[in-house]
């Protein structure tokens, strides 16, 4: 019994971190979708605003492809997002969670 309690606590902490990391993966994908949609409709500035809003207070990186000058109506624009995960921040580690989405350029 003395060994079971610490093992149970470790298991619960690992489960909690896995849940937070899973939520971060969903958040990164949602941020990528919002950025790609904004880039397809309103351009790069709108995409950067959308991803910053979706990320909230966490650091985020955004890469849009192709460059704005190479996009025409009907082409595809891809947003690649890396969101800083909150799962391991208490331990001082920075884990970047990726997300990617592609939309057709409308304007």
Q: How large, in whole angstroms, is the Cα Rg?
A: 18 Å
Q: Categorize the overall geometry.
A: elongated
Measured by DSSP, the beta-strand proportion falls in: 15-25%
Structural class: alpha+beta
- In order across it, which strands form the biggest sheet? 1-2-3
Order of helices and strands: HHEEE
The share of residues in helices is 40-55%
Give me the number of helical elements: 2
Give me the count of strands: 3
Please outline the major beta sheet. Answer: 3 strands, antiparallel
Global mean pLDDT: 92
Describe the structure.
The protein has 107 residues and is an alpha+beta fold. The protein has one domain (4-104). Helix content is 48%, strand content 22%. Strands 1-2-3 form a three-stranded antiparallel beta sheet, with helices on one face. The termini are far apart.
């Amino acid at each position: 019994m003395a060994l079971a309690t610490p093992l149970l606590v470790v298991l619960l902490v690992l489960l909690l971190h896995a849940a937070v990391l899973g939520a971060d993966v969903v958040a990164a994908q949602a941020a990528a979708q919002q950025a790609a949609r904004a880039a397809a409709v309103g351009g790069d500035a709108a995409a950067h605003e959308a991803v910053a809003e979706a990320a909230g207070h966490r650091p985020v990186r955004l890469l849009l492809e192709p460059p704005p000058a190479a996009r025409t109506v009907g082409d595809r624009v891809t947003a690649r997002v890396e969101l800083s995960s909150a799962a391991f921040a208490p331990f001082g580690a920075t884990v970047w969670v990726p997300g990617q989405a592609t939309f057709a350029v409308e304007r």
